[in-house]
Specification:
By secondary structure, this protein is mainly α. It is built from 15 helices and no strands. Helix 7 packs antiparallel against helix 10 and helix 10 packs antiparallel against helix 11.
Length: about 280
């Protein structure tokens, strides 16, 4: 079934029909989103090799999803504009899955630097969503002076005074890599900062599914550091959010399982563990 859209897209291109490039983009992106990365790669390489479009980022993303990390790195290195949004984030995720945690941290910080710089417009004191910044007018040039890469992880958190969804995502990635590297206190600080930024962006009363995901990951981090009561509390908070927004999701079941495992192995409450396991089914 996959060969048919690939062949059709190539025929569209070879016949030079009107709009063939856009059709190629649609088909290749559709294949990637349907977890058909190998088929999508055929089209991405087809477009890139013929100079139709630079699809190296998409090629790298497909290789990353396939676990082909060296090919993903090679594709990212072929990108001309390495300062483009998402470049450092993807390279960091590749490095993180390769176990190159320090390299991953560097890339995530560079992405944070880019996103924080893009947040502040030069012409006024609003972010690119048109919302007023908490920073004073003197900090409009702050993006030119704050060097996150030169700061310690702790100082970096204090330097972030305004937020956006991109910055929140960067903070979560940094928290993830710190947790994987065994730097649990730093990971906890970054998850908490991401949650703080999330509440500031959407409002304290908003129930946001991403908060449940972050709390689940913070719970895992606390479990790995041996802080079991804190982990249990995070799981409770995560489940309250997920039960309200997506009670039948796999993500909700995953947190139930994580909490069940915590009670089974560490809190020694077999009845509670069994109840959570059954609810996760």
């Amino acid at each position: 079934m996959i060969e048919k859209p690939v062949a059709a897209a190539k025929e569209i291109l070879s016949l030079s029909l009107s709009g063939e490039y856009e059709t190629m983009y649609i088909i290749s992106d559709m294949l990637c989103r349907c977890n058909q990365e190998k088929a999508a790669l055929q089209l991405y390489y087809y477009m890139t090799d013929r100079g139709i479009s630079d699809k190296w980022y998409s090629i790298a993303h497909c290789h990353y999803r396939l676990g082909e990390y060296k090919s993903a790195v090679d594709a990212l290195q072929a990108i001309q504009n390495k300062g483009a949004a998402g470049y450092h984030s993807l390279l960091g995720r590749v490095y993180m899955d390769m176990g190159r945690y320090e390299d991953a941290e560097t890339q995530f910080v560079l992405e944070l630097q880019t996103d924080y710089g893009n947040l502040i417009q030069h012409n006024n004191n609003t972010d690119y969503y048109g919302r007023p910044l908490k920073s004073s007018t003197s900090t409009i040039a702050q993006k030119d002076t704050v060097n996150f890469l030169a700061q310690s992880p702790e100082d970096r958190l204090h330097a972030i005074r305004d937020t956006s969804p991109d910055i929140i995502a960067d903070l979560v990635l940094l928290a993830d890599v710190y947790s994987k590297a065994g730097k649990y206190s730093q990971a906890a600080a970054y998850y908490k900062k991401a949650l703080q930024c999330l509440h500031e962006f959407y409002g304290d009363g908003a129930v946001v599914f991403e908060a449940g995901v972050m709390l689940n990951n913070l719970g895992i981090n606390y479990k790995k550091s041996g802080e079991y009561s804190k982990a249990d509390e995070c799981y409770d908070q995560a489940l309250a959010i997920k039960a309200e927004l997506q009670p039948d999701s796999l993500d909700h079941a995953s947190t139930l399982y994580n909490q069940g495992l915590l009670h089974h192995k560490h809190l020694k409450d077999s009845k509670k563990a069994e109840s959570l396991y059954r609810e996760a089914l």
